[in-house]
Design a protein that fits this description.
Layout: E1 3-9, H1 15-32, E2 36-41, H2 49-57, E3 63-68, H3 75-85, E4 94-97, H4 105-122, E5 131-137, H5 143-156, E6 162-167, H6 175-184, E7 189-194, H7 201-218, E8 223-225, H8 233-247
Helix pairs in contact: 1-8, 4-5, 6-7
C-alpha cells in the first residue's frame, strides 16, 4: 500500500517553525516508509490545509494519514480535522486522522530530556529530588487542554522535588503567578520548561516579556530555561506511532 502523511500545524510566521517542520517531515518519511510527507498550517500563513491536501492528492497513494500536530486536544484540533475532512468526499484515497500529540509518555520523556540538557549545560550536580520544575504552556479555553498538560506535570512529579505549571495566556496561573508559587517553595534550582512545539513568536518574545519581569521581582536562587520541544527524535517516533494506530 502506498501511504502519504500530512502534518497539520497551527501556523507561524517564524522561519524556524517551517524549518523544524521540514526536518520532521524528512525524518518521518525516512523512518515511517511513506511515499511522501508534507506539512500545512491551519492558520496564520500558507501553505494552508487546502494547499496541503491538493499537493498530497497529486501523488499516487492509496491512503493519506493526517496528523494534527498539536500538543493539546482543543478547539484548534477540532477545527483542523473538520476542515481537512471536507476534502474526503471528492478524494479517491482514504483519509485517516490520528490523535494529536498529547497524553503520551513520550512527551514526558522528551520534557525530561530537555530538563537534563539544561542541567548538564549548567554543570549542575544536584539530584532530581532537589530540583524544582515549572512547565509553561500556551493556555486554552478547552478543558481538555488543561488535562493534557496536567498529564505531563503529574508524571514529572514522580521524579522531581516540585513540579508546577502556568500559562502564557487565557488561563491561570499566569507566568508571574507561576513564578510566585515556585518562589514560595524556595527551590535550590528552578528549571523552566517551554512547553511549545516551535521556536515561534511565543518562545522568542511573548514568554520572556512576562517571565523576565517575574524573575526580577521574585529573585530565585538559580533559574535554568530549557529549549522548546522542537524537532526531537522522540517526537518523530510519536508521530509515527500515532499514524500506526490508525493505519493498522
Amino acid at each position: 500500500m502506498k501511504r502519504g502523511l500530512l502534518l497539520i500545524d497551527r501556523g507561524s510566521k517564524e522561519r524556524e517553525a517551517g524549518e523544524e517542520l521540514e526536518t520532521i517531515c524528512k525524518e518521518v518519511k525516512k523512518k515511517g516508509g511513506y511515499v511522501f510527507v508534507e506539512y500545512c498550517f491551519l492558520e496564520v500563513t500558507p501553505p494552508y490545509i487546502e494547499d496541503g491536501i491538493k499537493k498530497c492528492l497529486k501523488n499516487d497513494i492509496d491512503s493519506l494519514t493526517i496528523v494534527p500536530y498539536f500538543l493539546y486536544p482543543g478547539k484548534k484540533v477540532k477545527a483542523a480535522v473538520t476542515e481537512v475532512m471536507k476534502y474526503q468526499a471528492t478524494a479517491d484515497v482514504k483519509f485517516l486522522v490520528t490523535k494529536p500529540m498529547s497524553m503520551h509518555m513520550t512527551l514526558v520523556k522528551l520534557v525530561e530530556n530537555r530538563i537534563k540538557s539544561a542541567l548538564k549545560k549548567d554543570g549542575s550536580s544536584l539530584t532530581n529530588d532537589k530540583i524544582d520544575v515549572l512547565v509553561i504552556g500556551h493556555g486554552s479555553k478547552d478543558p481538555n487542554a488543561k488535562i493534557s498538560i496536567k498529564y505531563v506535570v503529574d508524571e514529572l512529579r514522580h521524579s522531581y522535588r516540585n513540579v508546577d505549571h502556568c500559562f502564557l495566556e487565557i488561563e491561570e496561573p499566569n507566568i508571574e503567578q507561576g513564578i510566585q508559587i515556585c518562589k514560595e517553595r524556595n527551590p535550590e534550582v528552578l528549571v523552566v520548561v517551554f512547553y511549545f512545539l516551535h521556536e515561534g513568536a511565543h518562545v522568542k518574545t511573548d514568554i520572556n516579556a512576562d517571565l523576565k519581569p517575574a524573575l526580577e521581582k521574585y529573585k530565585l536562587k538559580k533559574v535554568l530555561i530549557t529549549q522548546h520541544i522542537g524537532a526531537d527524535e522522540k517526537m518523530i517516533d510519536l508521530i509515527i506511532e500515532r499514524a500506526n494506530e490508525v493505519e493498522s
